[in-house]
Design goal:
This protein is an alpha+beta fold and 586 residues long. 29% of the residues lie in helices and 28% in strands. It has 3 domains: 289 residues, BirA Bifunctional Protein, domain 2 (2-Layer Sandwich); 139 residues, Alpha-Beta Complex (YbaK protein); 103 residues, Rossmann fold, CATH 3.40.50. Strands 3, 7, 8, 9, 10, 11, 12, 21 and 24 form a 9-stranded mixed beta sheet that branches. Helix 2 packs antiparallel against helix 6 and helix 2 crosses helix 14. The radius of gyration is 29 Å and the shape is globular. The two termini are 34 Å apart.
Length: 586
């Protein structure tokens, strides 16, 4: 490709609203252009890189017997009603009506469409297991698109779905898919990534793993152990914490004028925050108040709370809080109208004792609250159905590991892939069955496997760049080699460069040739912004000595001067070696 003909130009200025390194370099390097918030167009450089990512992905999916399909982006309300998700998913889903006023959706995920395929095509146990995958555009009405291609409203994903006759067969395939993901990410040049336990969220099922690129700019918090291999997203990470239990003391109502926060309450009572209990309030779409009670030194993880209640949550409004009898700044369980609210106690309140907690009375708190004695024991059967206990607290750095007891640590990451156990969550609700050995209809047992195709390119740039631009691995770089011609007016220089360019292309090597009449500094700055791993520089001075300069974009070794007649063979050999660096053994 001649750079003078390439659609997409480099930009010297750093865009003001580009917060992430990858966002800045993708805009400045002429990879992408923004149409609106969370909506980007891919220029040829990005399209070539993402096409290579897709190719590697297809190879790994085919390697585990995946069969590629293509499902529509546009879905019908009826299909999503079958699974129950049309009403369960909130504003993240794009909804529209067609010209006949028929409700439609733009698919943010494809469990429903793929189950439609399964129930029409996979009717016998003899056809199972089977896996279908696609690379398809997804739509998600993100409230806060960010980071360029990292969090978009329209993006490309590889999603795969496997169908099985048993949980055992699904689990065997689940770990085969996990291995395929590890190969895929290594082949695409990811270096610092991990697989962590995660939350199944709106997908349902019993367990899942996320693949995380560990970079400081990541939007997810990961909890890992300093001693063992425990790793989890903070959304599901847990800890036994440090529990201090003492014999139950008499419950006391204490006047606490103008005390509204845990910090103020701890100071007023001269106790540690871990001896207090705080209330975090949400509400459901049905206008029910949801109150999560957790130890005062801990935070509530909203995703854990959603998992316990199986409900979407939004911030609580004052009218909903008041209707349930809760008093902001002094919220406690005693005196709540449980017909108007759902209450969840974190396990730290279940196992602890003698907490200072709100009295539901302005200017007062209760001291020495013990859950069973002071609240649960006095509930009627229907009231007990409105109260749940579970793990809703956020594990933190320094807390004990749930596996070995050593200290946990926090790190940041970008999610680049995920795999989910789905079980029969969708096959039951959508009546997707096969006939077993005895001719009896059974629900398909399902797994789900996603990779953020569009997101992977910026994620790799986040971990692989310098101050001048991205440093792309050869397996996903838009071109293998970048040729620069210095001082084009010297005709022999351009001729030698063109000869090498044509010879390399004939050998199947992808080459970008900077044929513009630009100064060396400008050419090198643009080459750095494009991030191609290998660079060849033709200049009159070096050619006068029959030499050509070669350098790696990552500067792993100093630039080399090579005999001009050897440069083509040298590049062929180096390109082959570079691809070998990212190969994965069978």
């Amino acid at each position: 490709m001649l750079l003078s003909k390439l659609v997409g130009r480099t930009v010297k200025e750093t865009p003001r609203d580009a917060e992430l390194v990858s966002h800045r370099f993708l805009l400045r390097g002429g990879f992408v252009r923004q149409y609106s918030a969370g909506v980007y167009g891919l220029l040829p450089l990005a399209q070539r890189s993402i096409a290579k990512i897709e190719t590697i992905c297809r190879e790994e999916m085919n390697r585990i017997e995946g069969q590629e399909v293509k499902m529509p982006c546009l879905g019908t309300k009826e299909l999503w009603d079958e699974s129950g998700r049309y009403g369960a998913i909130g504003k993240d889903m794009f909804r529209l009506n067609d010209r006949n006023d028929k409700p439609m959706v733009l698919c943010m995920t494809h469990e429903e469409p793929v189950v439609f395929f399964a129930r029409t095509e996979l009717s016998s146990y003899r056809q199972l297991p089977a896996m279908m995958y696609q690379v398809q555009t997804k739509f998600r009405d993100e409230p806060r698109p960010r980071g360029g291609l990292v969090r978009l409203r329209e993006f490309a994903m590889k999603d795969a779905y496997s169908f099985h006759t048993s949980e055992e067969d699904l689990q065997n395939y689940y770990w085969r898919a996990h291995e395929a993901y590890m190969r895929f990410f290594k082949r695409t040049g990811c270096k610092n990534f991990v697989s962590v336990m995660s939350d199944n969220g709106m997908f349902g099922g019993k367990f899942s793993h996320e693949f995380m690129m560990l970079v400081p700019s990541g939007e997810d918090t990961l909890i890992t152990c300093t001693n063992c291999d425990y790793k989890a997203n903070q959304e599901i990470a847990t800890s036994p914490f440090d529990v201090k239990y003492s014999n139950a003391q008499p419950l006391q109502e204490i006047e606490t004028p103008n005390i509204k926060t845990i910090a103020d309450l701890s100071k007023f009572l001269k106790i540690e925050p871990s001896s207090t209990c705080k209330a975090v309030m949400f509400q459901t779409k049905e206008q029910e108040l949801v109150i999560a009670f957790v130890r005062g030194d801990l935070d509530v993880v909203e995703q854990k709370l959603k998992g316990i209640l199986q409900k979407e949550l939004i911030p609580a409004k004052d009218a909903v809080i008041a209707a349930a009898g809760a008093v902001a700044g002094s919220t406690g369980p005693i005196g709540l109208n449980l017909s108007k609210c759902l209450v969840v106690f974190d396990k730290t309140i279940v196992t602890g004792s003698n907490f200072a907690i709100g009295a539901n009375k302005d200017g007062y708190h209760l001291n020495n609250f013990n859950l069973e004695r002071d609240f649960l024991s006095g509930l009627t059967d229907w009231q007990k159905q409105r109260v749940k206990t579970g793990d809703v607290a956020a594990a933190r750095a320094g807390d004990p590991c749930p596996s070995c007891g050593h200290a946990l640590q926090e790190t940041r990451g970008i999610e680049i892939g995920n795999i989910f156990h789905l079980g029969t969550r969708y096959s039951q609700s959508m009546n997707s069955t096969y006939l077993d050995h005895a001719g009896i209809a059974q629900n398909h047992v399902m797994g789900c496997y996603g990779i953020g195709i569009t997101r992977l390119l910026p994620s790799i740039i986040e971990e692989s760049h310098d101050e001048r631009g991205p440093i792309l691995p050869i397996t996903i770089a838009p071109f293998d080699v970048h040729i620069c011609i210095l001082n084009k007016k010297e005709g022999a220089t351009e001729q030698k460069a063109m000869e090498a360019y044509n010879a390399l292309r004939k050998a199947g090597i992808e080459v970008l040739l900077d044929d513009r009449d630009e100064k060396p500094g400008s050419q090198f700055a643009d080459a750095d912004l494009v991030g191609i791993p290998l660079r060849v520089i033709f200049s009159p001075r070096n050619l006068n000595e029959n030499k050509v300069e070669f350098k790696f974009r990552d500067n792993r070794v100093p630039a080399q001067l090579l005999p001009a007649e050897e440069i083509v063979d040298f590049i062929k050999k180096t390109v082959a070696e570079e691809y070998l660096r990212y190969s994965v053994d069978e």
